[in-house]
Design brief:
Layout: H1 2-16, H2 20-29, H3 31-39, H4 49-56, H5 59-67, H6 82-88, H7 92-101, E1 120-121, E2 128-131, E3 136-140, E4 143-147, E5 152-155, E6 161-162
Parallel strand pairs: 1-6
Antiparallel strand pairs: 2-5, 3-4
Length: 185
């Protein structure tokens, strides 16, 4: 565990220095590292990787972190969200992306704290079909939804899993069992 913590801290320094291409490649090669980085908060400043990505205006990194469960609501020690950081740095499009990505803190689709659990979403109008290559655990309403390997499911534009009432995902359904997906799918 200590070794992993050291890797995360080195990755944070890589992010802080703006070496996003290098870091994104590392994350592509290690789900464990990418998942842990998505939840990491620097002691003292309370900055996370999403704050750093926003600071540098790196949309690809922002999307990668959000897809893994980084919270767009996370606050620095001086109460700034990643969107606030992006806006203050003049990255207006990134700020809008981060604001639109927010699911809120107290919803069924709030980002999970556990780095081994993927985030869910209710952005039905953004649905695209995906297939999982390994079993996937997704946060929903304080619980978990398990999606088995090779099972089709749907994601939003930030690769968060669309989950409907009672944890439905193929397709995500409303309270009456109706599909929440746009009719064109």
């Amino acid at each position: 565990m200590r070794e992993l913590q050291g890797l995360i801290e080195r990755a944070y320094e890589t992010a802080k220095s703006g070496q996003w291409d290098r870091l994104l490649l590392e994350w592509e090669n290690s789900d464990v590292l990418a998942n842990r980085c998505s939840r990491y908060t620097k002691p003292g400043s309370s900055w996370g990787f999403l704050h750093q990505a926003a600071y540098f205006g790196n949309e690809q990194a922002c999307r990668a972190l959000i897809s893994r469960g980084a919270s767009t609501e996370a606050l620095t020690h001086d109460s700034r969200t990643p969107a606030d950081v992006a806006e203050q740095r003049g990255h207006h499009e990134i700020a809008v992306l981060l604001q639109r990505a927010s699911t809120g803190r107290d919803t069924l689709w709030a980002p999970p704290v556990d780095p081994d659990v993927r985030p869910s979403s209710d952005r039905w109008n953004e649905a695209t079909e995906a297939r999982v290559s390994t079993d996937l655990f997704v946060a929903y309403g304080g619980g978990l939804v398990r999606i088995l390997k090779a099972t089709p499911y749907f994601v939003d534009s930030l690769a968060r899993v669309l989950v409907g009432w009672h944890g439905t995902f193929n397709p995500p359904c409303g309270m009456e069992g109706e599909s929440m997906l746009p009719r064109k799918l």
